[in-house]
């Protein structure tokens, strides 16, 4: 299912290590990718969508909703300068399609 996962491995001497955390999110048949640039970013981010009138939702990598806003056009600019460094999941929800991207803030 959806969530954040890590892999632990051990050698024959019993030493263990963990991988970095990875977000796994299901992709439905109605899910598409949106164009986000620059990525990584540290301020203004351009978001291009194949449709108008979507609702942008920005999540922390752990799934917590941080922000929600309307996107009225196909070409949008959103200011992420107040966001701390890290990775964020972006979803633009249209009438019948969900567009997704991972945004990296430096």
Low-confidence stretches: none
Helical/strand content category:
mainly beta
The sequence of SSEs as H and E is: EEEEEEEEEEEE
Q: How far from one another are the termini?
A: 29 Å
Amount of helix: under 10%
**Mean pLDDT value:** 86
Number of helices: 0
Largest sheet: 5 strands, mixed
- Shape type: elongated
Task: Please give the number of β-strands.
Answer: 12
Radius of gyration in whole Å, from Cα?
16 Å
Q: Taking strands numbered 1, 2, ... along the chain, how are they ordered across the largest sheet?
A: 5-12-11-8-9
The proportion of residues in beta strands is over 45%
Structure description:
The strands form 4 sheets. A 5-stranded mixed β-sheet has the order 5-12-11-8-9, with no helix packed on it. It is an all-beta fold. Helix content is 0%, strand content 55%. Strand 8 and strand 9 form a beta hairpin.
Structural key phrases:
106 residues; mainly beta; five-stranded mixed beta sheet; three-stranded antiparallel beta sheet; 12 strands; 0% helix; 55% strand; elongated
Provide a short characterization of the protein structure.
By secondary structure, the protein is mainly beta. The chain has no helices and twelve strands.
Topology of this protein?
Elements: E1 3-5, E2 8-10, E3 16-18, E4 22-24, E5 31-33, E6 35-37, E7 44-48, E8 54-60, E9 65-71, E10 75-79, E11 86-93, E12 98-105
Parallel strand pairs: 5-12
Antiparallel strand pairs: 1-4, 2-3, 6-7, 7-10, 8-9, 8-11, 11-12
